[in-house]
Design a protein that fits this description.
290 residues; alpha/beta; Rossmann fold; UDP-galactose 4-epimerase, domain 1; seven-stranded parallel sheet; globular; binds NADP nicotinamide-adenine-dinucleotide phosphate
Length: 290
């Protein structure tokens, strides 16, 4: 019998694509989702799904039962560290045999930014848990332009971020999924390893604006924000204060230039070159069309 693989975050940027790849490869994938409606929608596409919530210990216990491999991705919410630790405890009790953890670049218990410490704390607990593991630490996602910046791009032909002139090797979430799939399908090969996942090049806000302009056929500008302007804008957009503080800390790292490193890990794991920003911009062109 095929080993059953549980994918958490299965409706998100990374998880949705990971479930698709694993199903396509014929793996026994189970999507962990937060509602019956979402489970039914996936089942209609031929994907097995089970309902749980990271905030409900009983449901965590239930969903881990009978799963041999776990893709652990926590939602970007205040409870994420607590939920990560609870998920690891449930995985251990259920006898999960390999955990692939989706973390974040520069995560460390001693990181210089709070979100790095949160992710680093979960990674550290996994390393000490006795569970066989692989940790993926991806850089900032290209998909953030779709989720957080596309309305401003469509309505005002610009995007605003507190990143000054810094360059970032943003990664397409589809590449993270491809790497996670490779590890989940052959975990022994990657046991005990941590991979830093980046896109193929480090781009500044100006570089991104130039690509978006070319791909959309109109001028799209980058507007650098001060930290205070970003705080105000994000709170006004409805982001919880915890998330705003985490993002401002991350943006400080970006401005220091440390998120510009480029690694070969995507090619090493997935066997193909990472997706360049231009291709991402083309694939998501509907998000930029005015
Ligand atoms: N965005 C970036 O630039 C970036 C960079 C590096 C690392 N990361 C990390 O990547 C993760 C986010 O990945 P993503 O963008 O793929 O996720 P996402 O698109 O934000 O989706 C979050 C997923 O978590 C699920 N979820 C929410 N609350 C839940 C709960 N209580 N119990 C179980 N599942 C729950 C959501 O399910 P529903 O659809 O049911 O809500 C959804 O599938 C975070 O840990 C973030 O820190 C992000």
């Amino acid at each position: 019998m095929k080993e059953r693989i549980l994918v958490t975050g299965a409706t998100g940027n990374v998880g949705r694509e990971l479930v698709r790849i694993l199903a396509e490869r014929g793996a026994a994938v189970i999507a962990g989702v937060t509602s019956e409606d979402k489970a039914r929608a996936l089942e209609a596409q031929g994907v097995a799904a089970e309902v749980f919530s990271f905030s409900d210990d009983e449901s965590l216990k239930r969903i881990m039962e009978g799963k041999k491999r776990l893709f652990l991705l926590l939602p970007f919410k205040e409870g994420m560290k607590r939920w990560g630790l609870a998920a690891l405890a449930a995985a251990r009790a259920a006898g999960v045999e390999h955990v692939v953890r989706s973390s974040g670049l520069l995560a460390d218990t001693e990181a210089h930014f709070q979100l790095g410490k949160v992710h680093g704390g979960i990674d550290d607990a996994l390393e000490k848990s006795g569970l066989p593991f692989t940790i993926l630490r991806p850089n900032v996602f290209m998909q953030n332009y779709v989720r957080a910046q596309s309305a401003e791009i469509r309505e005002h032909n610009r995007f605003s971020l507190p990143e000054a002139e810094a360059r970032v090797s943003r990664i397409d979430a589809r590449d993270i999924a491809a790497c996670a799939a490779a590890v989940l399908l052959d975990p022994a090969e990657h046991a005990g390893r941590t991979y830093l996942l980046t896109g193929p090049e480090a781009l500044s806000g100006e570089d991104v604006a130039a690509v978006l302009s070319e791909e959309s056929g109109r001028t799209i500008a980058y507007r650098p924000l001060s930290e205070e302007q970003a705080r105000e804008a994000w709170l006004a957009a409805g982001l919880p204060e915890w998330n705003v503080n985490m993002l401002l800390g991350l943006a400080r790292q970006v401005r220091e230039g440390v998120m510009a490193l480029v690694t070969g890990a995507v090619k090493h794991l997935s066997g193909r070159e990472p997706i360049p920003f231009r291709l991402f911009a083309r694939d998501f062109r509907r998000s930029w069309s005015s």
